[in-house]
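Dear colleague,

Following up on Tuesday's group meeting, I ran the structure prediction for the two-component complex that the binding team flagged. I've pasted the input sequences exactly as they went in, so you can double-check that nothing got truncated or mislabelled along the way. The structure tokens for the whole assembly follow below. Feel free to forward this to whoever is handling the docking comparison.

Inputs:
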Amino acid sequence: MTEYTPAVYGTGLKATIQRVGGHLAAMIMPNIGAFIAWGLITALFIPVGWLPNEDFAKLVDPIIKVLLPVLIGYTGGRMVHGQRGAVVGAVATMGVVVGADIPMFLGAMIIGPLAAFVIKLVDGVVQQRTRAGFEMLVDNFTAGIAGAGMALLGMWGIGPIVQVVTEAAGDAVEWLVNANLLPLASILIEPAKVLFLNNAINHGVLGPLGVAEAVRDGKSILFMLESNPGPGLGLLLAYLFFGPRSLRPSTPAAMIIQFFGGIHEIYFPYVLMKPRLILAVIAGGAAGVFTFIVTGAGLVATPSPGSIFAYLAVTPKGGWFGVLAGIVVAAGISFAVAAALLGFGRKTGEETPAPTSEPETTPAPQEA
Amino acid sequence: MADIQSTDIRKIVVACDAGMGSSVMLASQLRKQLKGLGIEVEHTPVNSIPADADVVVCHSGLADRARKTAPGTVLVPITIFIGDPAVTTLVTAIKNGGTVHG
């Protein structure tokens, strides 16, 4: 719009990181339903679950080690080369899945799109040279041969490398937890989050590592680093009480959408408007992580979206105290710091931004 | 930078990172506001904005990517998700006629 054109902030680099991260998240997010199905089955039927059941618990291992990676590889393949890419990507993913004793999410995110890219190249060369009437025969066999070849490559080449990398990353995280350094992760996570890297971080990086840990230990703290709804809630509460008056009416709806609906994007603009408030969500996030560590909290699967309801659904039996405590502490600290940074409302007069040319009721974020 | 007459708008695409969260919310708000005007409102990931979109609405933090996926399409960047002035202007322009700049 001419009268109201927010500057398109963000350099090419940021857009590139967002795009790469977006691709990673885009392989996971359409499959979240399957993750939740696995999380529910796990929370209910494993020996320490709510309703231990030996037969139903047999579902746990094949779903996490085979079904979910194959779905990821399938989705990754589809992104690159449609249905044919999806099929070849799924077959190739079996190569990294079989024989690995960890869930091969990272492997699937590599080999699925890679295999689809191979069949895309093959199609580019072969399809225009195919004689009329032989298309189906050729298409089926090129896909079959490419899929089989990539599965072998995955098993011998990519699988072992990814396994080493995943285990090393897992060890690094464990070291951070043991050294009580994990709260420092919030210094990176929270700013990246409000720059719309939230899905990339949570689903592209932390989720796959968290699943590996959850399979081993029954729960993981990594699912909660980015998705904790507490810091955003505290920030919005501070806006409700101490923010610019013109913004206060919109915050209750934002809080409901953020905390119960789990759409964290809703609070990013409130940080971007007054960038120093990033300190509030960093402090809140770090305090939350610290509380999670102290109480030994963890979740069995990714809470997605990051809603309080999703959190409660994937909390292991007996783990509610730590999880809720971490959320409450995060919200409290974030609220306190944000309130202080907003001057407890005293400075609202001078800070209410005067719309420059647009006679709208909602103010333009002059400070951003 | 493209312009479009508001009477030519048939399809608005709301885009966000995953196409599953904030864009769905904003799209359903827009759909309500534009009810009965015969305008299709869709939500997609910002990496896969369909080619037949007349107007793209997305957060300004994702605008770089939206411009790459849908070059030449009118882009309305927003800063807040509830009651953004740019969205209000867009809706007003569609209802009362006028040109939408992007």
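Chain A touches chain B through 48 residues (CB under 8 Å).

Cheers,
M.
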